[in-house]
Every structure is written in structure tokens, then in C-alpha cells.
Amino acid sequence: MKKYFDPQKIDWEDILSRPTRTFGDIEETVNEVFKAVRRDGDKAVREYTLRFDGVSPESMAVQEEELMEAEGAIDGELKNAIRRAYDNIYKFHKAQKTSPVEVETSPGVICWQQKKPIQKVGLYIPGGTAPLFSTILMLAIPAKIAGCKEIVLCSPPDKSGNLHPAVLYTAALCGITRVFKVGGIQAVAAMAFGTESIPKVFKIFGPGNQYVTVAKQLATRYGVAIDMPAGPSELLVLADDTAIPSFVAADLLSQAEHGADSQVVLVTTSRELLQKVEKEVGIQLGKLPRKDLAEKAIDNSRLIYVSSRETAIDLINEYGPEHFILCTAEEEYYLENTINAGSVFIGNYTPESAGDYASGTNHTLPTNGYAKQYSGVNLDSFTKSITYQKISEKGIMDLGETIEVMAAAEGLQGHKNAVTIRKEYLRQAIQKVG
Ligand SMILES: NC(=O)c1ccc[n+]([C@@H]2O[C@H](COP(=O)([O-])OP(=O)(O)OC[C@H]3O[C@@H](n4cnc5c(N)ncnc54)[C@H](O)[C@@H]3O)[C@@H](O)[C@H]2O)c1
Ligand SMILES: N[C@H](CO)Cc1c[nH]c[nH+]1
Ligand SMILES: [Zn+2]
């Protein structure tokens, strides 16, 4: 881990650089796969699955029996855990439902706005280094609550050409039936263009490695929306003397183990804590089964001592971490001043893993500093709003002149006429009656 001690000499550009900023080669591969999938459909998807995943599943589509059988293949303890996580995620996302907004902006002019579900959505579930079945809960639950009609799920097959039983069980639990053993760029391309087997969708959701993230970004050029760039996991911990070093180290390692391109950062106002955390990371790292992946991510990571909370908050907002853990006696100051973060975890007893799995918040979050302009996945991600208006006779007589004056000033006589003709009609009608 790189260490920075003197705030005067902080090299901000170096500190804030992510290991995933270099997209050059990846873009070339993504372009190639997109072109082939658009042209050759399933055939290209199969070829790239063989090339990148090393397998050729007999059928890309998961059969109904496979979904049913998965329940018997995982143990009761895991099923209970998934169901408990399901309940919490469901509760938190259901509570995000809002009522339509309705306002009478002028007498007789009523405007309202209502959310409608996106009809066709594609969920990407990562599976390269681990089958992240928890991501199904994070995407499928809000998609169902929002009322999305067609939900398609893609996830990379394992070495034997199958999906992990926990992926199948969780998909079935969430009521997802269109599941495909396809991952990486080829999955995103298939959902963007549609193939003989995989339906085209309107919006693609889900996290993934750099290939998946760049592919999602490219998909937007072909008229498909995406949730956000949700790439390799990141964590920034802000801690002072009140933090427990072994907890901080465990949290840093929890995100480092996602992959070599993950990044974790400690920002602290305590030199002593920094030293202790560094030591703890060394001890705990050795015990992780995914030590190799975590070790590489730890190499990319930073331990930063800052002498003031103002410098700390500038750094946090400039970095815009995906996950932000706050373990400090000055909680309120940091909460009030944090503007850019995907999801915040507060206090010594709130590990980031809680949000990854079961507390209820969504773990699909913006990385790479995109927390400056994107929210994490939430219920609104699966809806779009339509605005409505209804103007009465009284309303058009009252607001009409405003519209006429503005339309004339823009030189748009047709716009003005659409109002004038109505006003004239109403005047004549009144005269006839009167
Ligand atoms: N930001 C978030 O919300 C969030 C949430 C969960 C996970 N994540 C991140 O998701 C990522 C999951 O990555 P993963 O790799 O385990 O699974 P993945 O499913 O994202 O990617 C695996 C696929 O990548 C493709 N691939 C691998 N090497 C390739 C190459 N050289 N060329 C072209 N394609 C290639 C393969 O098709 C493979 O199936 C991790 O980086 C993790 O940190 C992020
Ligand atoms: N930390 C990941 C989001 O960056 C989500 C996840 C899934 N499983 C474990 N962790
Ligand atoms: Zn995680």
C-alpha cells in the first residue's frame, strides 16, 4: 500500500488515480465483439463464450428444470440466509415507492407526473471470479417491485458450462425465468442488439469487471440505457482514533478480495491508526483464501494521513468512493459535508459487507469517481416518469396570453395560433350563450 503522510506534499493526481482508468485495449475488444454479435447473433455469442470463458454450453438458455432443481442443490443455511437478505432488500426498495406528484400551477392548469416501469430490462450478474448471486437480489427485487414486464438475466458459465446453483436458486426465488449462461462483453452485446435466443432490452443493469463496464458504456451508443458504470469494487475508509484497527483492516480486505483491479483507501487523522491498520492488513491478508487477488488490489491501494478534517473531506469528495466507511468521533461533520459517495457505512459495527449482502441497501454502485454524477441502483432506476397536464376552459383563457406572447417572441406563429384559436372559440361560445 502506498503511504502518504504529509498533507502539504500530497500528490492528488496520484492518490486519486484508479487502476481501472486505462481502457484503450479493452475498447478495441468490445468494439470487435459488438460488431460480431450484431452481425451473427447467437453464433458470435457462442464463439466469444468459448474464447473468453473457455466453454461452450449445450444450451445458452437455462431450462425450467434446471431452475427448479437448484433448490435441492444448496443447503438450508444458505437458503435461509438468501431469504433473509431478500426480505430486507425488498423492504428497503418497496419503501422507495413514491406517490404521483400533482400541482395546479395556475387556475385551471393541472400538471402531474407519474412513474412507469421500463418494460424490458437486462440484468448482468458477475461470475468471472465468483458467482455473485447476491447481485440478483439487488437487481431483480427492484425490477419486480417497479413492475418491469420482461426481465432477462445473463451470467457467465463456469468451467463446466453451468451456472452456480445459488445463482439459479436466487433467480427462481426472485421469479426470473429467462436466464442465460452468457457473460462478459458478449452478454452485454446480446442484450443490446438481441439475438435468436437472447431478447433485446431497453436498459442494462449490473456490475462487472472492466470488460463488462466498457461494454455497457458502448451499449449506450446503440440506444440502450444503462444503470451506471459499476466497475471493480472500491472502498474508502475515513477513521480516527475511535476506530478499531483490525475492523478497518478487515473492511479494506473485504473489497480488495474482489479482484486485482479493486482499490481500497484509508484516510485518517491519526498516524498511530495508520500504522496499526497497515500491520493488521498484513496479518489478515495471509489468511484469505483469495490472497492473490487481494494482494494485487492492496498494491494499488493507499494509506493517507491528513492533519485536518477539511483536507480529508476535500479528498473524499474529489475521489467519490463507491463505498465510504465512516469511523470517527466527528460523524456529523463528515456526513454533512460528504457530497460524492455511492453508499455510506457509519460506525464501528457497520461493515461494508452488510450492504453487499443483507442490510437492505443496494450494492450496485458507481465506481471510478462516477459517484459525482450517478446514484447507485434503486427503485427509480427501473422506472421512467411521464408528465401530464390538463387545462380547463378557464385555464386556457387565463394562461393563454403568456403562451402567445412567448411564442410570438420566438417567432413561432403556429405555436401562438394553437392558443389563439381556442381563446377565440371560447369567446364566440360565450357570446352565443350571453
Ligand atoms: N460496482 C459494483 O456495484 C460492483 C458490484 C459487484 C461486483 N463488482 C465488481 O464486478 C467485478 C466482477 O468481475 P468478474 O471478472 O469476477 O466477473 P464478470 O462477470 O464481470 O466478468 C467475467 C467475464 O469477463 C470476460 N472476460 C474476462 N477476461 C476477458 C478478456 N481478456 N477479454 C474479454 N473478455 C474477458 C469473460 O467473458 C468473463 O465471463 C469485480 O471487479 C467486482 O469488483 C462491482
Ligand atoms: N462489493 C460489491 C460491490 O462493489 C458487491 C458484492 C457482492 N458480493 C460481495 N460483494
Ligand atoms: Zn463486496
TrEMBL record:
Q: What GO MF annotations does this protein's record show?
A: histidinol dehydrogenase activity; NAD binding; zinc ion binding
Pfam families named in the record: Histidinol_dh
Q: Does the keyword Amino-acid biosynthesis apply?
A: yes
Q: How is the cofactor bound?
A: Binds 1 zinc ion per subunit.
Q: Which UniProt keywords apply?
A: Amino-acid biosynthesis, Histidine biosynthesis, Membrane, Metal-binding, NAD, Oxidoreductase, Transmembrane, Transmembrane helix, Zinc
Query: Biological process (GO) annotations?
Result: L-histidine biosynthetic process
Residues binding Zn(2+): Q255, H258, D356, H415
The residues the record assigns to binding substrate are S233, Q255, H258, H323, D356, E410, H415
Which EC number(s) does the record attach to this protein?
1.1.1.23
- Name of the protein: Histidinol dehydrogenase
Source organism per entry reads Muriicola jejuensis
Report the gene name.
hisD
